[in-house]
Fold this sequence. Notes:
3 domains, 13% strand, alpha+beta, 6-stranded antiparallel β-sheet
Amino acid sequence: MLNIYDAESMEKYSSAVTLSDMEIFIFPELMFSLVLANIMSPSIWKWKEDPWFSKMDTLKGYRKILRVKQYIMDNYDFNLDLDTWGLTNKDVEMNRFKKFIDDDTLSKSNALFGYEGDKYYFDMDIRRHFGLEKYDSEVIPYWKTETPEAMENFYRRPGYRKGAGECVSFSTLYFAALFVMAEVPTDKMYMIATPLHSQNFVEINDGLLTNNRRLVTKNMWFNGTVLSYKAKRALVNEHITFISNSKGYIHRVYDKTTLPRESYETFRAELQDFLSTDVNYEILANFLREYNNRQCCFQFETERFGKTLYIPAEDVFRYEHSSPYQVGTNTQTKLLDSIEEDEYYSNPVEGRVSLKTMQQFFQNNHIHIKELKEQPDIITDQLSNICRKATEIVPDLLEFCKTDPMLPSYEGKDYQAQEEDLTLSGLTDRQQIIAYLRTLKDTSEATSLAFMAYREIVGDYWYPFLKAALERNPVSIEMFIGQSLAEAYESINAFDEDSIYSENRLAQPDEVANFHTGDGLEKAILLWNLAKNKHPDTKVDLALQGGTARLTVGETHYDFTANKIVSLPENMSEMLKVLGIA
Length: 582
């Protein structure tokens, strides 16, 4: 539980407010704590009022999930803009986390601290990919995981027309939304974090991945399209850092795990099955769609006007781009028929295997992936007498048909069971869930952190909230860098007066600055962040009385109209000094 006099406790609880990618890497328990906060939030429950979900009760499980997916696709964009939450410095963050993890382990495991990943990411120049090449190599972004409230308010920012968020935001949003809207049990979903990405695995049908805004089914995983290739990159190329759900978590770096072995082994088996497929003609066609460098070994043939005609495989796959028909499906004949006759050859193209021959082979042979791995000649023999590259094709085909995820090992882990049951099974009402979680707040750290992420700032929670507000909100400082405090006060006071958070929950300064709206109390805390930066040696005090939030900087008062009804701790300014925050 929170202990404001313990530096490590304050670091963890303040991280539950800012929720940057690096903080979640260091404190993996924050991942499910944010999910609980999202489930408590009224934002997702409001979706039930949307006509799009009016017939949810009539739909089966997977159809409900598709409804949620389409709503997210229609209402949110993916955003990884460096300017949204600002920048920090490697040394600053490493100094924060040195009590929790050593520099070498951190640099090998986290993308922001020097992680180069496998050859794929090393070759692509990761800093250039994310737009960091224009900054000093020590500069790293604050990629903060947005709450549902922050995500849905992106429309307030210039250039945005709807909500937005980054990958961890979508992962936790999907998790909560599938529980609230599609009634998927929390222990049937697993959040998968890699150094560069976050996605969810859902145990339904043959398995399902959420990937940013989209869903990936097993069929989609193996369809060979560009979208699927992009969705596959993280699990194919990266070590999985941690797995988390309502049962607990397992982290690659830490010895402690709270996820029971049985749950982990079930997840592992389900994921591995999702990531592998047997080989048939459709899979071969999908393989050639993704591994287009192998198309040169194949040709199609078709009958036209009583003659057999031939065409290189790459020509047919090129026609797919502008056609509703696809190779490897029951529409393949229509695709071939749509190609003009002058594209075809009257004789077989030398050195190429006919895909009609391969189609007939697979009609008579069902090839298990394990069988192909042990006996590659099953397919090589069908190719080698014609294509000189036949021996190179099967290893690529095996790689396409089976991904071995680089999962954390359970061996040697110290299992420590979670304090309480967080599956929320049997709870279907928001207020019922909040009431239940309140009973666990003093006994379950994950729940205690959830209320911190929920932004219900009461009692001692004020101190980690203000630590985050006054130490990790660079956007608001940059926004008013050319203004005096008095000028900034006038600008902030002109913002809209609505808080993005309902009830008496509070926004951070950069949320107020980014969305140009906030309650008077939130605006006062934003001005406090500026005062700390512009006048670090000047005494600052905050008071809330009679609908007015008053920030006093030195001898000057700055008043804001406040509607939030909260209680500030007594002697807060003095306590902040003791804690090294003010």
